[in-house]
Amino acid sequence: MADAVTSQTIEDGGKNLIIKLTNISDGSGESAVAKIDVSALNSNPTTGVACSRVSIQRIWFSNVGMGFSLYWNATSNMFICQAPKDWSDTWDFSMGNEGKSGIPNNAGSGVNGDLLLTTNDHTSGDTYSVMIWAHKHY
Question: Is the pTM of this model over 0.90?
Fold first, then answer.
């Protein structure tokens, strides 16, 4: 058996991407699962250029029993953040300095633009519910 996971795209527009992720664990968990695959996102509606990366603007989450970690996919995956088990919160990264906002994908060698998720401390019956708002870059 495997964890019961869902991924729902709420918006995949010219600038914004909003996704909803859920997991009801059977105890097996997830390890470096691509939750945002930039090659599958819509291209720029004006230029037709494919999306190459995203920057995370905001994360809403509710974890029961388990937590999760996010990584940028690269030759050596780059850690972004960890949402603790038994915790709910909203993290807003949209107010940057010098007109920049969000957590950029600066993963370095072998970067492909994808966002990965790994669960932590998962046991049977644990859950997470996550919404991620990201800006698309071309």
Answer: yes
